[in-house]
Specification:
Blueprint (H helix, E strand, L loop, with lengths): L1 E8 L7 H12 L6 E12 L6 E10 L20 E5 L3 H12 L3 E5 L5 H14 L33 H10 L19 H14 L3 E3 L4 E7 L2 E7 L4 E3 L3 E3 L6 H9 L5 E2 L2 E10 H9 L16 E4 L2 E9 L3 E4 L9 E4 L8 E10 L6 H4 L5 H16 L6 E5 H5 L16 E3 L2 H23 L9 E6 L6 E2 L15 E3 L10 H20 L1
Parallel strand pairs: 4-5, 4-10, 5-6, 10-22, 18-19
Antiparallel strand pairs: 1-3, 2-3, 7-8, 8-9, 11-21, 12-17, 12-20, 13-14, 14-17, 15-16, 18-20
Bound molecules: flavin-adenine dinucleotide.
Length: 519
């Protein structure tokens, strides 16, 4: 017999497989010995009542039934197969490469940055020496922006592709099995480098190429067809199809495409700050007076409000995490968040961002047409760098001071390693963002009692929430409408937001390449 049931257990009980099994037997009115296996399908936290409970959706297998294991995809040797160029090794590029192999094509992955181990040294240099390597940082290098991230895997929408398939590949390559069942799965920044390294080894084992320090600087296009790319080392790579998966921070790629007259479209984004509270405070707000205890994870939150006609919302919340310096070039300060798998740091941070549309921009930006949003964001990052003392120190203020329009005379401690400096956040954020953010924070304080506090800092600026441009593509062939064989993919092209959706988009582009090459 196979039966799906719902269980509601205390956090402690839900932590032990044997207790889940006996609770299943009790609920079904059968003996525990007649249960062969219990498979957890979904696990979520219900913190609405007085006592926090865990909701489990489980499949109970009795007698001779057992959970079926999905076989891993078959990756043939593709050494001699037709080559496909993939620019960028982020989630979109990596999963495009695996899908190419599955379909008998040979991926040539070109990555501007370094491998995960070497990349780590450059991350340290940002925090300690305040030096940003424009090819190797929190956004660029093996595994893309996802490698030293939180690794939250929230996309549950099956509309775009096989989410479970993506999660299974991540598990096969070293992520914890729980990501398959958790309602809010995350891998953790300590585990992600190993996962991306294993994916690289798989690609190489199958005969694909994976080349570092290869920044694409030009596209070879003849008669509106892509023929290949040229890299910073002067190398020329040719193929009939190029998957362009360079992420939202590759501004040089947008400039190259713009100079070449390749059509792009400006799009809206959301910008603002990271807010940092103590995790203990967030745990008490979310779980009640007893806080987290031994069996609950660091608490998360999600907030959204409308302020003066635009959405203000929390973005990429990192419980038990760190704020990290995510600039990709000199003379800019950008912040983002990450957390280890244990989520055991004493701080909780989240992006708090304001949605902004192209028509909201001042005229000086609008004049720049398709590049207008990128210029707006660039200028905000530069103001943050100036206000931060022209180092990687980030401008900051206490939440309450910002809302009272005051510059803070002192700041709370922070997880942001390069350091923070009290600054005029209105100057940094500008006239469109600052008032909406202020209003949003006050409203959030009314929704989540205790959230609005002088013991929280706002730290600027959070600007890399999505891409400021979209590279158009035909909805059926996924190829650029004017340049055949060019497949814009992932977050940088404007078709994904986050690790899972970028991975799915990479897979979809690889499948589109298969169709394209058949013709
Ligand atoms: C600190 C941080 C935390 C994050 N946390 C999360 C999270 O918890 N959950 C989540 O879902 N998302 C998170 N994100 C966002 C997530 O990382 C991105 O959505 C995702 O990585 C996008 O995938 P992508 O493949 O489209 O692009 P990217 O991951 O940006 O990859 C692009 C790749 O292209 C390379 N590249 C760029 N230009 C060139 C060039 N000219 N030539 C060759 N290579 C080039 C880059 O080096 C990079 O490796 C986080 C991002 C950051 C920075």
């Amino acid at each position: 017999m196979i039966q799906e049931i719902q269980l509601r257990l205390s956090p402690k009980d839900a932590s032990f497989a044997e207790v889940i099994k006996s609770a299943s037997a009790r609920q079904l009115g059968i003996k525990i010995t007649s249960i062969n296996a219990v498979q957890v399908l979904r696990r979520s936290i219900d913190a609405r009542g007085k006592n926090v409970m865990i909701q489990l959706s489980v499949i109970v297998y009795s007698a001779n039934d057992a959970p079926e294991k999905m076989p891993p995809p078959d990756y043939p040797n593709v050494e001699k197969a037709e080559e496909v160029i993939i620019v960028g090794s982020g989630p979109a590029g990596m999963f495009a490469a695996l899908k190419c192999i599955e379909n008998g094509l040979c991926p040539i992955v070109l990555e501007r940055g370094k491998d995960v181990r070497e990349r780590r040294k450059d991350l340290k240099a940002i925090s300690i020496d305040h030096k940003v390597n424009p090819d190797s940082n929190y956004c660029f290098g093996e595994g893309g922006a996802g490698t030293y991230s939180d690794g939250k895997l929230y996309t549950r929408s099956k509309k775009r592709g096989d989410v479970d398939g993506i999660l299974r590949i991540l598990v096969e390559n070293g992520a914890n099995e729980e990501i398959i069942t958790d309602a809010r799965p995350h891998i953790g920044t300590n585990k992600l480098p190993n996962v991306v390294e294993n994916v690289r080894k798989k690609i190489l084992d199958c005969g694909g190429l994976y080349l570092f320090n290869q920044r694409v600087t030009d596209f070879i296009i003849e008669n509106d067809k892509i023929k290949g790319v040229i890299t910073s080392t002067g190398e020329k790579y040719t193929a009939k199809a190029v998957i362009l998966a360079t992420g939202h921070s590759a501004r040089d790629i947008y400039s190259i495409l713009n100079k070449k007259g390749i059509e792009m479209q400006v799009k809206g984004i959301a910008v603002g700050v990271r807010i940092e509270h103590s995790q203990d405070l967030i745990d008490h707000i979310q779980y009640g007076k007893d806080g987290r205890g031994e069996y609950l994870p660091a608490a998360a939150y999600k907030l959204v409000e409308q302020c003066y006609g635009r959405g203000v919302y929390s973005f990429c919340m990192c419980p038990g995490g760190y704020i990290v310096p995510s600039a990709t070039d000199a003379e800019q300060v950008v912040v983002n968040g990450m957390s280890p798998s244990s989520r055991d740091n004493k701080y909780a941070n989240s992006g708090i961002v304001v949605a902004i549309n192209p028509e909201d921009l001042e005229e000086k930006y609008q004049k720049e047409g398709v590049m207008s949003m990128m210029s707006f964001v660039q200028e905000m990052e530069r103001r943050a760098w100036i206000a931060g003392g022209k180092t990687q120190c980030a401008p900051a203020g206490r939440m309450t001071d910002f809302c009272d329009k005051k510059i803070s005379s002192s700041l709370n401690n922070t997880s942001y390693q390069p350091g923070i400096i009290s600054a005029d956040m209105d100057y940094v954020l500008g006239d469109f963002v600052a008032p909406r953010l202020r209003e949003g924070l006050i409203k959030f304080g009314k929704k989540m009692r205790g959230y609005y506090t002088e013991n929280a800092n706002i730290i600027g600026v959070e600007t890399r929430t999505s891409s400021p441009l979209r590279i158009p593509r035909d909805p059926l062939t996924l190829s650029h409408p004017k340049i055949s064989g060019l497949f814009p993919s992932g977050e940088g092209a404007g078709y994904a937001g986050g690790i899972v959706s970028a991975a799915i988009d990479g897979e979809n582009c690889a499948l589109a390449v298969v169709e394209y090459l058949k013709k």
